[in-house]
Amino acid sequence: MAVVPSGEASHSFEFVAAPPDLAPYLNSLYIWRTSDGQLDDVLPAYSGQMVVFGRGVGRMQFDDVVSDTSDAFFVAPLCQARNFSVSGPGVVFGVSLNFRGWAALSGLSVHDYHDAFLQPETVLQDPLAERHTTLAPRWRAGEIDDGELLDAMCDIVRQGLSSLPDQHLTVIDRTLEWLSSSFKPELDVLYDQLPYSKRQAQRLVAQFFGQSPVRLVRRYRAVRAATLLSMPQLPDEIEAEIREAFYDQAHLIKEIRFFTGRTPKRLQPNSGSTINDMLGPDGYSSVSLFGAGEAEQLGREPLDEL
Question: Half-sphere exposure (CA, 13 Å, Cβ side) for 72?
């Protein structure tokens, strides 16, 4: 378990490694604690989340709709950063699903289900959805502790997973590898790697990731840049590579703000932010942030997922 203190911010994250059998489907588990009062922040374009609100209440802004939290719900994958608030003290338990996990657990197209709170029964079969909704009351009653609640969430995921067709797994995995290969990967490289026509490939990428390949590049370039810029002691060469991936400083700021809710200045390691924790290595692992050049300078294996 990695505890991420948040400086002057009134919250903390505990990241918990996924069980080995669920590792292909999850980024991580986490417990997020907030103190009294209201915390206002922005959630980046993040993958799907299974959530239990043990204590506190929250809300998130989705365009013209404001959605309130409940004891148990899912956050569908986000295609852009979203404003949220939590009235504390809060204790939130989460299972961060990667794109394989979202597809295998929910069976829902991200093109149709994104940027929204979803009730458990929308994602899970009835018996599992009912179990999901009982976890917060049981935790508040002292029937289960933090670890047992996370274990129960994992068991629900484990029982709810369905097998994905090999060709669909190929689309997900090769798209992730393609996104990881460069700040500006070539579209034709992706289409050449997928066992479908260009039109079919575009449709399936939208199904599993919520956006066309062109827009997906923008999204992950911004998230990848933000994650790297949030690291302490980033080598000058990598920072230069990041800046070269955008037209100019204004473009970099605009894209990072749209997809992460941050500006480069607010990504500094000591800024004490909910979002900096989630953009950090434990929080965001769907796409490898390190190509070969970055890996060598940061002491990591090429394309080694965070």
Answer: 22
Nearest to 28 by CA among 78, 80, 79, 98: 98
Query: 16 has which bridge partners?
Result: 29
- Average pLDDT of 120-149? 98
User: Which fold is adopted by the domain 166-298?
Assistant: Arc Repressor Mutant, subunit A (1.10.10)
Please state the rounded mean pLDDT for residues 26-33. Answer: 94
Distance CA 10, CA 107 (A): 36
57 strand-pairing partners: 87
Tokens of 166: 């090999």
Q: What is the mean pLDDT of residues 195-221?
A: 95
Give domain 2-160's CATH architecture.
Sandwich (2.60)
- CA gap 4, 306 in Å, rounded: 16
Cα atoms in the Cβ-side hemisphere of radius 13 Å centred on 266: 14
Inter-residue contact 278 to 43 (CB < 8 Å)? yes
- pLDDT above 50 (res 243): yes
